[in-house]
Amino acid sequence: MDELKGGAPAVCGCRQKATPRSTALQADVQKRLNRAIGQLNGVKAMIDDNRYCGDVLTQLAAAESAVRRVSEMLLAEHMRTCVVEEIRAGNDAVVDEAMELVRRFSK
Amino acid sequence: MDELKGGAPAVCGCRQKATPRSTALQADVQKRLNRAIGQLNGVKAMIDDNRYCGDVLTQLAAAESAVRRVSEMLLAEHMRTCVVEEIRAGNDAVVDEAMELVRRFSK
Amino acid sequence: MDELKGGAPAVCGCRQKATPRSTALQADVQKRLNRAIGQLNGVKAMIDDNRYCGDVLTQLAAAESAVRRVSEMLLAEHMRTCVVEEIRAGNDAVVDEAMELVRRFSK
Amino acid sequence: MDELKGGAPAVCGCRQKATPRSTALQADVQKRLNRAIGQLNGVKAMIDDNRYCGDVLTQLAAAESAVRRVSEMLLAEHMRTCVVEEIRAGNDAVVDEAMELVRRFSK
């Protein structure tokens, strides 16, 4: 089952990642996600409190930047593990899937 | 107190918004923020579950896009209310502050 | 003739800019556009020469960044002049047009 | 000489691309670059003519979008050829270089 399936890529053979992420990477990502969630909860409170637009937008930009950084970390890890493994296994279709992820990331 | 203060813009006279956001806009924004937070919690569970990179990145892109849309809505509201009011009041410095927000938004 | 016309905004009353850009701004913008055009001609030569992808992409990124900077300068000038003038003249529709330009800029 | 060299990546062994781009891709890219250059020359004329900001920004956005599309095409081609070849040759450093290009592309 190495083929790509439309809308639900299963390149690594299933929906799990073949090479698990390191404990360190997982911990770092979870910490960043917690921070982003905390910032968004902060924005919710600021909206309730009728806070000034500039301040709310600054907080939103911080949250967006945190989410983006997580995407970048996971994309880099994806390239270093899944993409390399699939290419070595002869499954070059993984490259088009990766470009699709890059395109979405760069929006 | 109409001046801009470095790092903590107080163009509207204080850190509250002079013209409160409409109840409808507040409700819409809070709903979108809740959805983004839900998506990020979903990502946390996917990381714990060693889910495939492509699926995690898709969920992260959805969250980022939700946050971005909120920023855009609040920036538009800011321009329609605070910026217009300050310009009419002769405080053109609000334009440079708005451009700074635009620059941050477009990163 | 103060209305917005679909696809061909004429907020300033006609397709000319009401307050001309300063000579200094014009010269700066033209210099930057010349540089971007030079960089794109450089990319064309690199393609003819089968140059390495990374080098071509670096040159393209420089050109894109130059074009983006010009957009940012003109958008800031637009806000400081046309937008302020129209708001003072009571034509608040200029704000929605400006947000549309911001949205396109931030793509 | 397969190593990456700071600032001047030579992953494919030299500054030429190991697998030449197809004639069709080259022709498509050159056509798009010509169009972008034409649009930038159009912007220069619009600046000389004091044209309305919104119209100038629309033209700039078109040029930027054309340049971006060329970057995307070349990045995809890079991944499909150089990156795959280098990974097969055991040179995994190409992945980090590719991520650096992705990061620059997504700015």
From TrEMBL, chains A, B, C, D:
<dbReference type="InterPro" id="IPR038390">
    <property type="entry name" value="Metal_Tscrpt_repr_sf"/>
</dbReference>
<protein>
    <submittedName>
        <fullName>Metal-sensing transcriptional repressor</fullName>
    </submittedName>
</protein>
<dbReference type="InterPro" id="IPR003735">
    <property type="entry name" value="Metal_Tscrpt_repr"/>
</dbReference>
<comment type="similarity">
    <text>Belongs to the CsoR family.</text>
</comment>
<dbReference type="Pfam" id="PF02583">
    <property type="entry name" value="Trns_repr_metal"/>
</dbReference>
<keyword id="KW-0186">Copper</keyword>
